Amino acid sequence: MTLAPQALRDLVRGIFERQRMSEAHAALTADVLVWADLRGMGSHGVMRVPRYVDFIRKGDLNVRPSIRRSHDAPGCVLLDADRAAGPIAMMEGTRAACEKAKSAGIGLALVKSTTHTAALGYYTQTAARDGFAAIALAASSPLMAYHGARTAGVSTNPLAIAFPAGDHPPYLLDMSTSTVALGKVMASSMISMGALAQARRSGQSLPEGVVLTAQGEPTVDAKTASIPLPLGGPKGSGLGFMAECLASLLTANPILAESLEQTPASKRHRQNGLVIAIDVARFVAPEMFRAQVARLTRGLRELPGDEILMPGERGSRRAAQQRDAVSIPDSVYDELKTL
Amino acid sequence: MTLAPQALRDLVRGIFERQRMSEAHAALTADVLVWADLRGMGSHGVMRVPRYVDFIRKGDLNVRPSIRRSHDAPGCVLLDADRAAGPIAMMEGTRAACEKAKSAGIGLALVKSTTHTAALGYYTQTAARDGFAAIALAASSPLMAYHGARTAGVSTNPLAIAFPAGDHPPYLLDMSTSTVALGKVMASSMISMGALAQARRSGQSLPEGVVLTAQGEPTVDAKTASIPLPLGGPKGSGLGFMAECLASLLTANPILAESLEQTPASKRHRQNGLVIAIDVARFVAPEMFRAQVARLTRGLRELPGDEILMPGERGSRRAAQQRDAVSIPDSVYDELKTL
C-alpha cells in the first residue's frame, strides 16, 4: 500500500485524537512514526500504532500526561513523563536538553516513565538540525541475552548519535545493541512483531551466533529464534547494561531489575530515556565547521570500496525517494483503517 | 616477568622523569599504564612506554605542556592539551568534566591535541569512584575499515562508560569499535604491536569476517591480517565516525581528514578526546542508588548461564589478583630497563 506521507500522518493523527490525545500530541506522535516508515524502518513506524492503542486501553500510555520537571540545574533536568507516548516525552526531553546546552554548552534531559520511545534517531536528528550534536538512548525491558546468560537479561537498547552536517541532513547513527545480523533480519525491538516474524513464516535461516531459542540454545532457524545475542558479546550487553544505569537508575525507575524479579510493576509497559545535547556553535564557527564536515565526508567517500555511505544516509535517501508516496504493508494499512 | 606494581610504576616514572617530565606527570602516566597491565590489558600497558619515548624524541609528545582552557561555560570547557601525554591530558579533562558536573549536573571536557590516550577506562573509573557516571571517547588516525571500504577509514576508537557501583568497584565498559573477535586477538589499536603480532608469529588463524589484508581482501590468516573490520559493520564504523565528529571536529583539530588526505600534519602522532560526567547524587540519594545497583547486579547474576560478569568485573578481578605482583612480558621488561 502506497500513500502520501501527509495522508498517512493524518490517518494516524486521527486514530490518536480518537483516543483523546490532544491534536498537537497526536500530530507529533504520527510524525515520529511516519518518519521511521519514510526512512525504511517500518518496524518502528506506523505498524506500532495498534500496539500504542493497546497501551492506551490498558492504561499504560497516558494520552493526557502532566510532564513534570525536577532536578533543574544549569545543565540538566529530569522530566517525569507521566506515561506519555514516547514521541511526546522524548521530544520534550530533546527540547529541554537543547535549551540547557544553549546556556551551559551541554545539556542533559533524563526522561522517566515514558512508553515506547519509537525511532530514537528522530529526536537526535531534530536537535542536530538546530545545530546540536546529540546522543540519545532508551531503556526498556529484557529482550536480549546478557553476555554469558542463556535468557534475556538486558534490552536491545537503541542508541542514537546525530551530528549537524552543514547543508546536508545531519549525520545520524541509530543502532541497537544486538547482533547486527539479527538486527538486519529483525530490525525491531519487538521480537514478535518485526521482520523476524517474516523470517519465521518464510523459513529463512539466520546467520550463526546471533540468536538463541527460548530454551537458550543457539539456533539458525528463524522459527525457533527467540532471544537475540548482544553485538560483540560483552560489548553489546555492556552497552545495554549502561543504558539501564543511565536512563533507569538515574531516574529511580528501574526496569530490568523489576522484570528480572517479575514484580507486578514489571507487567506494565514502560521505558525511560535520556538525551544529551552539545551546542556545536559554541566550539566551532559555522563556516569552519561546514568545511570540515564536507572534508571528512569527501575523504571517506573517496576510499576504495563498494558504496560508501555516511551514517544515516541510507535512511535520508529512502526518505527523499518516498517524499511523495510512502509504502506500508497492506495489513498495517487495514489495521489503521479499522482503528 | 613478575614484579610488584609499585616497582613497575617507579621504573616507568623514572623513564619519563629522565625524559624531563615532571615527577607528578611521570607518576600519573606510569599509574595509568600500570593500571592497564594490572587489569590484564597489556596492549595498553607499559609495553607502550618505548612508543611514548619515541613520541617524545620526535617532538610529538610534549613533556612540559601548557594545557590551556577555553570555551568555558557552566557545563563545558575545551582543553588544548599542547601535545601532553594522553594520561595527563585526559585526567585533566576528567577533573574538569567532574567539576562542571558538580555545579551544572553534567559536564563536558573536550580534549584537543593530546597523544595516545592509553586505557580510557582509567579516566571514567576515576570519575565513577568520585560519584559520577562518565563517558569518554578518543579520536585517532585511521586503523579500521570504514563500512563498505577496503582500506582503513576510521579509528578503532575506544569508548568507555563507567557507573558508580556503591561499595564495589565501578561498573566499567571499555570497548573498541572494531570486531570483537579481532579485538580479542588484537586487543590493541596499534596493529603492529599488539597480540596480532603474536598471532602472526604463531600462525594462529583468525575468525572469519573480522579483518582484511593490506590489499583489502578478507582473510583469516594472521600473517596477512592488516585492517580490522568494524563491529557490526555500519554500527562500528558509525561509532568511529561520530567519535571523530565529537572529539576532533568540535575541537577544530581534524585527524581523519588530514590522514586521508595525507597532509604533512597527519604524519605526526596526535589524538583528541572527550569526557562527559554526570553527577549521580544530584538525581538519586546514595542509599537508594546503592540498593538499586545491587538489585540489578543480583538479578543479572541469577540468570541461567555460564559465568555472568558485570561490565569491568573481569578486569577488577584480575587487578585484585595482581595486587602484589603484576606480570609483564620479559621482552617488555628488558626494553624498560634499557630505557
**String of helices and strands of chain A:** EHHHEEHEHEEEEEHHEEHHEHHHEH
Measured by DSSP, the beta-strand proportion of chain A falls in 15-25%
What about the largest sheet of chain A? 7 strands, mixed
Task: Give the terminus-to-terminus CA distance of chain A.
Answer: 17 Å
What's the total count of β strands of chain A?
Answer: 13
The 3D shape of chain A can be described as globular
Radius of gyration of chain A: 20 Å
For the largest interface, the chains and their residue counts are: A-B, 81 and 81 residues
* Helix and strand composition category of chain A: alpha+beta
How many helical elements of chain A?
A: 13
Q: Quick check: average pLDDT of chain A? A: 90
Oligomer: homodimer
Description:
2 copies of one chain form a homodimer. The first copy, chain A, has 13 helices and 13 strands. In chain A, strand 2 and strand 3 (76-80) form a beta hairpin. The first copy, chain A, has helices at residues 5-18, 23-38, 49-58, 86-104, 120-129, 180-186, 195-202, 234-249, 256-260, 280-283, 286-301, 313-321, 330-338; strands spanning 2-3, 68-73, 76-80, 106-114, 132-139, 144-145, 152-154, 159-165, 168-175, 211-213, 225-228, 271-279, 326-327. A 7-stranded mixed sheet of chain A has the order 2-3-4-12-5-8-9. A two-stranded antiparallel sheet of chain A has the order 1-13. The first copy, chain A, has a two-stranded antiparallel sheet with strand order 6-7. With 339 residues, chain A is α+β, with helices and mostly antiparallel strands. Chains A and B meet through strand 3, helix 4, strand 4, strand 9 and helix 8 of A and strand 3, helix 4, strand 4, strand 9 and helix 8 of B.
